[in-house]
Amino acid sequence: MNAKIQRLQQGESIALISDAGTPLLSDPGYFLVREAKKAGIQVIPIPGPCAAITALSAAGLPTDRFAFEGFLPAKSKQRIERLEKLRQETRTLIFYEAPHRILDLIDDLLKVFGEEKLAVVARELTKRFETIHSGTLAHLKTIISSDANQQRGEMVVLIEGMKEAEPTEEKTIAADRILTVLLETLPLKQAVEIAAKITGERKNHLYQQALRMQAK
Predict the structure, then answer these.
(1) Can you give the pTM of this predicted structure?
(2) Which of 120, 157, 164, 207 is 20 to 30 A from 34 (CA-CA)?
(3) Pairing of strands 118-123, 92-97
(4) Are residues 136 and 180 in the same domain?
(5) How many angstroms separate the first and last alpha carbons of the chain?
(6) Number of domains in the chain
(7) Which helix (H) or strand (E) holds 137?
(8) 159 with 93: CB under 8 angstroms?
């Protein structure tokens, strides 16, 4: 690492190249970038293929908000522990997985998210044997376990995020009352922040609600 930084400081140019898609996604190359930046060395990105983004663009799942998680732990216990922390995630989740672990991953996803959770398994993207399967986790388990070819190659697994609960009429009325009191003495933004802490409602929802109240 230090030798590479010294070469860069001496005026050489170094290219960080990956044979598995875009560098620095699920590889340790960011250590070099971090040290280069600390040394005041310019880092220039060059776009390249990225399996996570390629899969997301063709998955049919929400693309406006997503979380790239890379490879999960190899052992089931640790993998389930990590998935449990992501169970309430509202963003589309993106994972990489090795072919020999794909069925184990699907089994653990079923345990955490349930059979009806929508998901996508994208395999060998941009290559000759590319396949993209979507459906419930139960459906994907059937497809993958019944075809050995679907257990080969580079895998991207995407999981639909949890749908955010719509506010009930009772909560809306309570939020209206709280916002009415707060807006009498506080600026809109501060009133919304306090109302969100009291009610547990999303700030953007309360903000729109407050705007409607002020417009009346």
Answers:
(1) 0.69
(2) 157
(3) unpaired
(4) no
(5) 63
(6) 3
(7) helix 137-145
(8) yes
